[in-house]
Amino acid sequence: MKRLVIAVAVLALAGCGGEAVVPRGQGAHGHGASSTAPPVPAASARFNDADVMFVQMMVDHLQLGVSLSQVALAKATKQEAKDLAGAIDATQREELSMLKSWLKLWGKPEGGGADLHAAHGGQPLLDDKVIDDTKNKNGAEFDLSFLNLMAGHQGAAVEMALAEKKDGMNPEATSYAERVVSTRQGQVSQMLKAISGS
């Protein structure tokens, strides 16, 4: 599993730099957390089907990321894993609130993200069952599992964001997609370094 997820994450990073989201020693409120995140924009009413699909899929994606991050905050033993989980939890909660407000403005439902994943390439790497299974792991085994799962999960966010940049028309949604590409690539890079040092 370790090699599989690393391969997925490396593909997501191919040709891209991306800075680490949590510099060493800064803890959960480092780069990428609420203290340095850009202001939350309100979306304009101009959008297309690609924008709606992206936002709905990201709502589902972010909720799963927050769930796994909460488990890691309680169980991770490596400080770097805890720091990453804290930054991801804080940032993705803010993003969830923003994206849900956009869907409300557009008159679109929040649900359906998991079904959209299935319709566009299969089930996501992370789901409630995987998260529950991860809860049963402890110590170094948990840390490695968390880092692998989250690296693959954030790599998938990059793929969704790249599709939105290509096909979306809402300026706020495409700008958010740009930010997702940058921040998630940084997170994946940092998680791969943590995995290789395990």
TrEMBL record:
The record places domain DUF305 at 51-193
Q: Which domain of life is it from?
A: Bacteria
Q: InterPro entries attached here? A: DUF305_CopM-like, Ferritin-like
Quote the protein name from its UniProt record: Uncharacterized conserved protein, DUF305 family
Q: Which organism is it from?
A: Lentzea xinjiangensis
Q: What is the lineage of its organism?
A: Bacteria, Bacillati, Actinomycetota, Actinomycetes, Pseudonocardiales
